[in-house]
């Protein structure tokens, strides 16, 4: 059984306050975009492999596409499987993950893989988990994982884990997204942020026409990331020069996207051979 986890972008991102626990409260809008990984599972009766600690390992993970660093056991798709396995004693599985969504991009690729893995296991093994229960499991894997269960435009607050549905469609718009070969430390980006009350209400701004977003819809991380990595800010400037109606960095970076009016041909642009570039129509 196969599924195709998609990415997300942040439409606006305001860091509103630092919490006593060291985390930050924020507000943002998650919006799904059609950049997809591929995730497939097979039941394998012979994939129970001895683990290093002598216990039986009930999964094997095969990765392709963009490189993923780290141990297989640390991959969120594996953590999703092991989480449900503890409750349902799942059959051993052979997991195939093809990565097309770049990591460290502010696109939620790992979170999406985890959420789609939960949904895939629920369907394949007829676990009967409700959407609410799937969201609960997803939230335990990461703050934004639960978004990908419903995978609809969502207003998020708290640490990015409190969701409210919103009415927003960018279906006819086109997107040009660029992820340069630059790694931005989320921890460092947060350390340079000065929490504040936003000048404009995010909920009110997102209800305005896209043509009015440029001066109102802000990603607070840009103020700390662009001075450290000017090339990221230059991509945003170039997207506006190429005719984007709205452009912004997603999350804490390093990807930057531009939205173009319906029917507008997406421009040709050279962002360097090491950059990931996606062009397509919004969902």
TrEMBL record:
Residues 219-262 form the GHMP kinase C-terminal domain. The keyword Transferase applies. ATP binds at residues 102-112. Pathway: Isoprenoid biosynthesis; isopentenyl diphosphate biosynthesis via DXP pathway; isopentenyl diphosphate from 1-deoxy-D-xylulose 5-phosphate: step 3/6. The active site is at residues 8, 144. The keyword ATP-binding applies. Keywords: ATP-binding, Isoprene biosynthesis, Kinase, Nucleotide-binding, Transferase. One of its GO terms (biological process) is terpenoid biosynthetic process. Residues 75-149 form the GHMP kinase N-terminal domain. It holds the Pfam family GHMP_kinases_N. InterPro entries: GHMP_kinase_C_dom, GHMP_kinase_C_sf, GHMP_kinase_N_dom, IspE, Ribosomal_Su5_D2-typ_SF, Ribsml_uS5_D2-typ_fold_subgr. GO terms for molecular function: 4-(cytidine 5'-diphospho)-2-C-methyl-D-erythritol kinase activity; ATP binding. It catalyses: 4-CDP-2-C-methyl-D-erythritol + ATP = 4-CDP-2-C-methyl-D-erythritol 2-phosphate + ADP + H(+). Its EC number is 2.7.1.148. Belongs to the GHMP kinase family. IspE subfamily. PANTHER family: 4-DIPHOSPHOCYTIDYL-2-C-METHYL-D-ERYTHRITOL KINASE, CHLOROPLASTIC. Catalyzes the phosphorylation of the position 2 hydroxy group of 4-diphosphocytidyl-2C-methyl-D-erythritol. This is 4-diphosphocytidyl-2-C-methyl-D-erythritol kinase. It comes from Bacteroides salyersiae CL02T12C01. The gene is ispE.
């Amino acid at each position: 059984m196969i599924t195709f986890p998609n990415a997300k972008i942040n439409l606006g991102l305001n860091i509103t306050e630092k919490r006593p626990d060291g985390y930050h409260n924020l507000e943002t809008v998650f919006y799904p975009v059609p950049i997809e990984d591929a995730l497939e599972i097979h039941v394998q009766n012979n994939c129970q492999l001895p683990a290093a600690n002598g216990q039986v390992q009930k999964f094997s993970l095969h990765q392709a596409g963009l490189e993923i660093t780290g141990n297989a056991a640390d991959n969120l798709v594996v953590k999703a499987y092991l989480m449900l396995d503890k409750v349902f004693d799942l059959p051993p599985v052979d997991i195939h993950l093809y990565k097309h969504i770049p990591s460290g991009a502010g696109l939620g690729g790992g979170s999406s893989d985890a959420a789609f893995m939960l949904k895939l296991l629920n369907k394949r093994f007829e676990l009967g988990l409700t959407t609410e229960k799937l969201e609960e499991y997803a939230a335990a894997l990461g703050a934004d994982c639960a978004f990908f269960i419903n995978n609809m435009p969502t207003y998020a607050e708290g640490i990015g884990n409190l969701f409210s549905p919103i009415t927003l469609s960018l279906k006819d718009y086109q997107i040009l997204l660029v992820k340069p070969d630059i790694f931005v430390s989320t921890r460092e980006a947060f350390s340079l942020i000065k929490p504040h009350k936003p000048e404009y209400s995010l909920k009110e701004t997102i209800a305005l026409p896209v043509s009015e977003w440029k001066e109102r819809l802000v990603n607070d991380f840009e103020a700390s990331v662009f001075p450290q990595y000017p090339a990221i800010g230059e991509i945003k400037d170039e997207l506006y020069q190429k005719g984007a109606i709205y452009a912004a960095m997603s999350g804490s970076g390093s990807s930057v996207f531009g939205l173009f009016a319906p029917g507008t041909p997406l421009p040709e642009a050279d962002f360097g051979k090491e950059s990931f570039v996606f062009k397509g129509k919004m969902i």
